[in-house]
Design a protein that fits this description.
Layout (H helix, E strand, L loop, with lengths): L21 H17 L5 H14 L5 E5 L5 H6 L5 E6 L2 H13 L5 E5 L12 E7 L8 H11 E12 L6 H13 L11 H10 L3 E6 L9 E7 L3
Parallel strand pairs: 1-2, 1-4, 2-3, 4-5
Antiparallel strand pairs: 5-7, 6-7
Helix pairs in contact: 1-4
The structure holds S-adenosylmethionine (SAM).
């Protein structure tokens, strides 16, 4: 493991943390769901670039699973480009808001469910794409979550992800601000890896890396966009 990827948040490993039950993991996100829904997107231009890129990868014949969908903003934008988008999140609070948005703005292809990305999803081998935006650094066990995503895919299916690489952040934020925020309940458990480590973890599951991109338009972009493909 490269030295830069080693555990700055006092975790035993940069790729796992003691996450506990799904209910425990959901607690932080349930608490902030309303605020999360109200907060503006920090880098709208970068977000739109990602959306256009993903829309270009999806087709109207595809069944798609999103993990860690939050309040469904992205799912609502992407579902019209699919045959079916099942968007999931461990937080019932996030999903309740997502369902309210869907009721106000119906998209027939879209449904929302509470589900933990650290546990097997219904529909093994049923999906043409798995979407994971801003959430792979939050799972309990990165290798396990990637294995489960891979199992959900059909042969030839794509994992499309955008992930905050905490190991690429300013060391003061990483070593000081985030651990303090976590202690006072203002930040969740975070896995700390960089883009190379994430790529290696995806490749370890037998997926082929198709593309590694950065879409940010404001300052240093520590979020990596990765497309990977399950072999036929
Ligand atoms: C930073 S938000 C990102 C939400 C959305 N994907 C976006 O890009 O705006 C992270 C989301 O991941 C969810 N999450 C965290 N751990 C999860 C897990 N183990 N399984 C499923 N969702 C999880 C949280 O509840 C939260 O809604």
């Amino acid at each position: 493991m490269p030295a830069r990827a080693i555990a700055p948040l006092a975790e035993a490993s940069p790729l796992t943390h003691a996450g506990g039950s799904a209910a425990r993991k959901a607690r932080f996100w349930d608490r902030i769901a309303v605020k999360y829904a109200a907060d503006p997107i920090a880098d709208m231009a970068g977000y739109e670039t990602t959306l256009r890129r993903v829309q270009g990868l999806l087709t109207a014949h595809q069944d798609v699973l999103e993990i860690g969908c939050g309040t469904g903003t992205t799912a609502l934008r992407l579902a019209p480009f699919t045959r079916r988008l099942r968007a999931t999140d461990v937080s019932a609070g996030m999903i309740a808001i997502a369902r309210e948005k869907l009721a106000a703005e119906p998209v027939p292809q879209l449904s929302f469910d509470v589900a933990d990305a650290d546990a097997p999803v219904a529909g093994q081998g049923e999906y043409d794409a798995v979407l994971a935006f801003n959430m792979l650094h939050l799972v309990t066990d990165l290798d396990r979550a990637l294995q489960l995503a891979m199992q959900a895919l059909r042969p030839g299916g794509m994992l499309i992800s955008k992930t905050a690489c905490i190991a690429e952040m300013n060391p003061l934020i990483r070593h000081l601000a985030l651990p303090v925020m976590r202690v006072v309940g203002k930040a969740p458990h975070l896995l700390c890896f960089d883009a190379d480590v994430l790529q290696s973890a995806i490749a370890r599951q037998g997926m082929d890396i198709v593309s590694v991109e950065r879409h940010g338009t404001r300052g240093k972009d520590f979020r990596v966009f990765i497309v990977a493909r399950k072999p036929d």
